[in-house]
UniProtKB/TrEMBL annotation:
Record field: catalytic activity: L-seryl-[protein] + ATP = O-phospho-L-seryl-[protein] + ADP + H(+); L-threonyl-[protein] + ATP = O-phospho-L-threonyl-[protein] + ADP + H(+)
Keyword set includes Flavoprotein: no
CDD domains: STKc_Aurora
Region feature Disordered, mapped onto this chain: 1-26
GO function terms (MF aspect): ATP binding; protein serine/threonine kinase activity
Crosslink feature (Glycyl lysine isopeptide (Lys-Gly) (interchain with G-Cter in SUMO2)) location: K193
Family matches, as PROSITE patterns: PROTEIN_KINASE_ATP, PROTEIN_KINASE_DOM, PROTEIN_KINASE_ST
Start-end of Basic and acidic residues biased regions: 11-26
GO CC terms of this entry: chromosome passenger complex; kinetochore; spindle midzone
Pfam families per UniProt: Pkinase
Binding positions (ATP): K78, K97, E146, Y147, A148, E195, N196, D209
Protein name as annotated: Aurora kinase
Active site: D191
Length: 299
């Protein structure tokens, strides 16, 4: 589908009716697209050595703000806003997350932003919001992301109150599949919550916001981060090391929230912390099936 939105450079000589290698300006025009697209799949025509003698992907990709038409804001983040944008040349619609450098420095968050880019740009999965590229100017850093037209899971859940068991199960499976992909690459997300999960065009879930994520091949971390309601006991107890199982705990908390409409330890910050450490979860209502209860208690 993407390849239809991003047609290859028009390297067909119309008069002669023959293919010719793309010119430099044609390649430059499509330079940012090469980052967004998977490498071209060789077809019978493209395997012809003459046609692709020139490397179709330029080494240096030079994305800049002028390439995009800015549309409505989609949301607000810690260091700036996220906008709906359109790539002027191709008409490709995506989301642009704008991060303010001064704010990042003020918050001492350079490491987090670098990690967000490094981790997110290496992930490809239908359940993970696609990362297309990034660029920066003197004041801002721009992340070019897949547009999730369905918006935040958080808003949808608040609007409908709670999900049916079937819908809760579908959502839980999709988050579990995305987590499986992350964990197979030794990545911990560490901030799974309904605000950071978005709905794609067909109602499918997309895990987003890799601001707290970390690539940890040793599978042991000790930094306290994330959002209190979704943190596991091992993260809250002092000095304990934790593993990627922290994301699994969050899957249980999320599924509870899908079924009930609010998180299981919701309280004042002090009490929430205490209750998480004690495992003192508000019991699931009787209307929830035994199977669903088992799932929430076991993840
Ligand atoms: P925070 O730390 O507060 O979660 P953040 O700086 O990490 O913020 P994001 O969570 O990535 O920012 O984005 C902020 C909000 O913008 C999201 O909660 C969502 O509502 C919206 N948003 C982000 N990316 C997209 C996207 N690709 N498509 C649609 N909406 C998006
Ligand atoms: Mg977020």
């Amino acid at each position: 589908m993407l390849s239809r939105m991003f047609p290859r450079p028009a390297n067909v000589d119309k008069k002669a009716g023959q293919k010719r290698p793309p010119t430099d300006s044609e390649l430059l025009k499509h330079s940012c697209l090469n980052r967004m697209l998977p490498p071209p799949t060789p077809t019978r025509e493209t395997t012809n050595k003459d046609t692709w003698d020139v490397d179709p992907a330029p080494k240096q990709v030079c994305l800049h703000l002028g390439m995009f038409e800015i549309d409505k804001p989609l949301g607000k983040g810690k260091f700036g806003r996220v906008y709906l944008v359109k790539h002027r040349v191709s008409g490709f619609v995506c989301a642009l997350k704008v991060l303010n450098k001064a704010e990042i420095i003020r918050e001492n968050a350079e490491k987090h932003v670098r990690r967000e880019i490094e981790v997110h740009s290496n992930l490809r999965h239908p359940g993970i919001l696609a990362f297309y590229g990034w660029f920066h100017d003197t004041r801002r850093i721009f992340l070019l992301l897949e547009y999730a037209p369905g918006g935040e899971l958080f808003r949808v859940l608040r609007r409908v109150g709670r999900f049916s068991e079937r819908r809760a199960a579908t959502c839980a499976v999709q988050v579990a599949q995305a987590l499986n992909c992350l964990h197979s690459k030794n990545v911990m997300h560490r901030d799974i919550k309904p605000e950071n999960i978005l709905f794609g065009l067909h109602g499918e879930l997309k895990v987003a916001d890799f601001g707290y994520s970390v690539h940890a091949p040793s599978n042991r971390r000790d930094t306290l981060c994330g959002t209190l309601d979704y943190l596991p006991p091992e993260m809250l107890s002092t000095k304990a090391k934790y593993t990627k199982a922290v994301d699994q705990w969050t899957l249980g908390v999320l599924t509870y929230e899908f079924l009930v409409g609010e998180a299981p330890f919701e309280d004042t910050p002090f009490m929430t912390r205490k209750r998480i450490i004690k495992g003192d979860m508000t019991p699931l209502p009787d209307s929830v099936s035994t199977e669903a209860k088992d799932f929430v208690h076991s993840v």
